[in-house]
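ARCHIVE CARD
CATEGORY: sequence design from structure
SOURCE FIELD: tokenized fold
FIELD CONTENT:
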């Protein structure tokens, strides 16, 4: 019986690996995204990242990375590597998710996560560590029963769309909030699972029929004009925007701080017209903080 004797062992190290989490389906998106990495402040073409069978988007080489990535991948190997900032851009040709970008130091050992200089990133509630969240676009086609809140956010001071404002809804105080991102036209769709039904009344009369069940949830907005303006807005720039104000009325006398919705009915938030005889507004007023 012959014995196999390896004459040479060759290992190859990937300089980048990143996976993307959809909090609505609570799953990783394993394909159909366009992902690239490009050095910051260096005029070099982007490197395309492709998904493997586990849904990790990776590349076998990057600018400034040792040719071919050949090496042991051990502590000594990574101690010899110098990382530099790269911008990673993400787009969804199917239109399910908002395009965005974020900055990461590459090459990186292990999966690349998303973090901001000011502290931990506000990941959606169920996003695993070392993953990057995706955010539903206003045009996402949905299946199943989900709560949907839509709005066209309008900067009342600038008289322009509140581009890339971030909305936050607290569905359960014990869980992280649900986030949504407006597109360049201020359009936003927040999609999430319905909250738990309340406990039956003490008097034993039973619950309301599901079609009549309503919830009222706190809602907040973060917005700074122009802070995240880009074809691929930076996630940190979006979520580091200062708290702003949503307005329930055109006169901007009453802030909108909560949203009420009924099971099975999409909610479209609008600012109420206050002038006598005025037509209803089609937008939701936002004003940035001082």
């Amino acid at each position: 019986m012959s014995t196999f004797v390896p004459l040479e062992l060759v290992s190859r190290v990937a300089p980048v690996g990143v996976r993307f989490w959809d909090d609505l389906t609570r799953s990783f998106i394993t394909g159909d995204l366009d992902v690239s990495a490009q050095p910051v402040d260096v005029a070099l073409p982007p490197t395309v990242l492709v998904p493997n069978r586990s849904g990790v988007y990776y590349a076998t080489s990057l600018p400034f990375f040792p040719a071919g990535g050949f090496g042991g991948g051990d502590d000594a190997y990574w101690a010899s590597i110098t990382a530099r900032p790269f911008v990673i851009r993400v787009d969804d040709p199917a239109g399910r998710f908002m395009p965005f970008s974020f900055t990461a130091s590459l090459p990186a050992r292990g999966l690349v996560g998303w973090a901001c200089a000011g502290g931990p990133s506000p990941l959606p509630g169920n996003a695993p560590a070392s993953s990057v969240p995706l955010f539903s676009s206003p045009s996402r086609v949905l299946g199943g029963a989900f709560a949907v809140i839509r709005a066209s956010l309008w900067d009342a001071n600038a008289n322009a769309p509140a581009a890339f404002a971030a909305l936050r809804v607290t569905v359960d105080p014990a869980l992280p909030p649900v986030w949504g991102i407006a597109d360049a036209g201020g359009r936003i769709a927040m999609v999430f699972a319905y909250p738990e039904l309340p406990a039956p009344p003490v008097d034993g009369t039973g619950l309301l029929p599901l079609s009549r069940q309503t919830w009222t949830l706190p809602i907040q907005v973060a917005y700074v004009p122009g802070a995240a303006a880009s074809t691929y807005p930076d996630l940190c720039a979006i979520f580091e925007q200062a708290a702003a104000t949503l307005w329930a009325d055109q006169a901007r006398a009453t802030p909108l701080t909560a949203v009420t919705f009924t099971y099975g009915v999409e909610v479209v938030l609008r600012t109420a017209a206050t002038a006598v005889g005025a037509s209803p507004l089609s937008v939701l007023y936002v004003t940035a903080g001082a």
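CARD ANNOTATION: The first helix runs from residue 75 to 79. The longest strand covers residues 147-155.
SHELF: design records, drawer C
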